[in-house]
Amino acid sequence: MTKITISDYSIEKVLEYSENRDPDQPEFQQAVREVMNSVIPFVNENEKYQFPGLIERLIEPERAIMFRVPWEDDQGNYQVNRGFRVQFNSALGPYKGGLRFNPHVNLGVIKFLAFEQIFKNSLTGLPLGGGKGGSDFNPRGKSEAEIMRFCQSFMNELYRYISGDMDVPAGDIGVGEREVGFLFGQYKRLTAQFTGVLTGKGLAYGGSKLRPQATGYGLLYFVREMLKHTSASIEGKTVVISGSGNVALFACEKAIDLGAKVIALSDSDGFIYDKNGINEEKLEYLMELKIERRGRIKEYADEFYCEFHKGKPWELPCDIALPCATQNEIEEHDALHLIKNEVTCVAEGANMPCTDKAMKLLYRSGINYAPGKASNAGGVAVSGLEMTQNAKRLSWSIESVDKNLVEIMRTIHEKCLEYGQESSGVDYLNGANIAGFIKVADAMIAQGHV
Ligand code: NDP
Ligand code: 2IT
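Above: inputs. Below: predicted complex with NDP.
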């Protein structure tokens, strides 16, 4: 096994070390590469961070839990899925991060998400460590009863490893308010404790106002800051959004609210292209379609006589592109289409939706590009506010949560400028990675070699 010596930090050495340890985790290696490309040059220039073992600890989860999730489907068949919780870093606070239920989930995917979460949570300024979990369970087509049985079985194992002061999960792909409700119910039954052990809860039992909206709204607040910095505004801009889940729909709502024209949304079947723009009435239909009925995006095209196409929406001309579906959904050829069509801003609602090559192409073409750990941090930020409200047994008003969210997104933007301002523009990736790293590294150094 290669060892990294402090006198010899190089990006290549660190990546070789990481890849040798987990060669079968491409998404995790991609996330490590993306962070280390910013952090290692910074460490080399700042002696304080040349602390023995710091980088090795940073890329090694404190704990990774894997467990069996047996459940029974509606036909009486026994099913078995795999559950995960990666508790990556608790230097800043209890592990915090969502749960993803999706057939593509494996240990490497959860590790990439938990790793990204460390820096994102650091950027929020709140006392949150980084973690993530989930299962390869596919919720698509499952009945409500099956979802509940699955969630209960998942929690039968997970409850041993979480608590309001230790690890606080929330939602992510395939896990929304319904699933959080079932998970919370089972946790309460197993422990007889009513605590803020999960966020994204329903309003009736400890959820925060605006938590469902927070990631999408926060994304648009961040985009507003990016455009303001170049003396531009969202008003009148054409926006393409991928996905039509929690993040995408509320990003769409806030974009419309701020005067933009949203012409596309998607799901894993394809995308709708509505030349006239999605208005409030159509958005109401979409919320009912995707959140209540869990239907397919194509039904929107049938309802409002617009185009539906298979594939991804990145060939559509737009000013602002907001990938809000999943990792690596903008590949090199997609980025080339966006550049050809003169997109001016790409901000990530999803986690790591751009491949390495796509990201570099966008940045080098002078496009205002924001990485998810900065631009989608609004969701976990309001989760942090939910934890505070739960601890105080209080519920804040919409106005109060929104004001906090706006301020947190503005501050994250400022931190990106502090470490990412270049003569040619803002390198938001470097800015976010370095600002996120500094706080975590300071805490890790102070707490010793643990
Ligand atoms: P949802 O499950 O609510 O929605 C996911 C959306 O993305 C659906 O429209 C889904 O389509 C689509 N999608 C999922 N996988 C694929 C795929 N492989 N190809 C094409 N489309 C796909 O999840 P969220 O909206 O919560 O999450 C979306 C992204 O945002 C994820 O990357 C998540 O990690 C990130 N994120 C979420 C936060 C949150 O608070 N929820 C916070 C910060 C980031 P279909 O219905 O067909 O599967
Ligand atoms: O990726 C994310 O930041 C989330 N899925 C939200 C995590 C949270 O704890 O609210």
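The two ends are 21 Å apart (CA to CA).
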